[in-house]
Write a structure and sequence with these properties.
The protein is α+β, with helices and mostly antiparallel strands. It is built from 1 helix and 3 strands. The chain has a domain of about 50 residues.
């Protein structure tokens, strides 16, 4: 099974193309981003990734259902943000 590789925007640390972010109870972010696929009806699909605990969506789906699951994870997750590496 191939690894789920998510490319990050170097300026923000969020997945490339992030369309929404949700704040966890511990102040980490859950990012909603396009997966690059489409549904059988031609609608773009999305996934989510928690930048605190590292949990991610297993399946891609239309924006609405994925957004709701990302927001639900943010409500339950108590992860704090990972420290960012120092910029030289």
């Amino acid at each position: 099974m191939p690894a789920n590789i998510v490319h990050a925007n170097p300026a923000t640390g969020l997945p490339v193309g992030t369309v929404a972010v949700f704040l966890t109870q511990g102040a980490a972010l859950v990012a909603l981003y396009p997966s690059g696929g489409s549904t059988g009806h031609g609608c773009p699909t999305f996934k989510w990734l928690c930048l605190g605990c590292g949990e991610a969506s297993y399946y891609e789906d239309e924006r609405g259902p994925v957004r709701n699951r990302a927001n639900g994870h943010a409500t339950d997750c108590r992860a704090i943000p990972w420290p960012r590496p120092a910029q030289l």
